[in-house]
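Project outcomes to date are best conveyed with an example. Our students and postdoctoral researchers have been running inverse folding experiments weekly, and each run begins with a structure described purely in tokens. The record below, which covers 211 residues, was selected by the lab manager from last quarter's runs and is presented without edits.
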């Protein structure tokens, strides 16, 4: 099996002039981990339109001389949506961030073996600072991403090899946007815990948030 690929926040030659430098130092990073392969991809957390919705589902039961229904909680759906803006400060960073975006998109497709059988569950753990985190430090929320929109913002400019606009009309030339957006829509999965683990709704280090 292929070794996991870990594409961290951009750390190349031009990092000092990139938003990646600020994000890395502050820990403002969004991380995606692909369960079947272990591949990891990270982006600076320039987040907008974040939403974390919880929708309880009830079953109505009636019995005997009870006229009003008795609601029984059957499940709770959790929907997560957010938009990331990825900014490129150099051609090198634009190439790298494009590879990161492509890896994230590839995570949405089935993983199969040589015989065409599916490998593992199509789960992706998403970690976003304290907004999306699991039971363990730096562990994300297990999700199924049911929508990803990749939007290029050409009105903010493009990056190329300084070959001029006319050169872009020829095939094989590199052109990248100054920035692009990735919008995520995901359904969170409820990971099973033992009875003893679920006795307290708080983290083991509560109320300390310092780690």
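After processing, the design step wrote out the following sequence:
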């Amino acid at each position: 099996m292929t070794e996991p690929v870990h594409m961290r926040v951009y750390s190349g030659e031009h990092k000092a002039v990139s938003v990646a430098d600020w994000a890395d130092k502050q820990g403002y990073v969004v991380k995606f981990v692909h369960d079947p392969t272990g591949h990891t991809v990270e982006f600076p957390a320039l987040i907008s339109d974040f939403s974390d919705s919880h929708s309880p589902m009830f079953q109505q039961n009636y019995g005997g001389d009870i006229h009003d229904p008795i609601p029984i909680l059957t499940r709770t759906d959790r929907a997560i949506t957010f938009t990331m803006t990825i900014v490129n400060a150099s051609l090198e960073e634009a190439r790298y961030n494009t590879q990161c975006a492509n890896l994230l998109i590839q995570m949405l497709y089935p993983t199969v073996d040589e015989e065409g059988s599916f490998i593992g569950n199509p789960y992706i753990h998403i970690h976003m600072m304290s907004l999306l985190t699991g039971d363990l430090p730096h562990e994300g929320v297990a999700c199924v991403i049911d929508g990803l929109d990749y939007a290029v913002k050409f009105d903010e400019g493009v990056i190329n090899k300084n070959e001029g606009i006319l050169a872009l009309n020829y095939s094989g030339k590199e052109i990248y946007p100054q920035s692009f957006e990735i919008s995520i829509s995901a359904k969170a999965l409820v990971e099973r815990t033992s009875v003893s683990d679920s006795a307290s709704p708080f983290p083991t280090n509560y109320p300390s948030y310092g780690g």
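The chain has one domain: 6-58+70-188. The two ends are 35 Å apart (CA to CA). The training component of this project remains on track.
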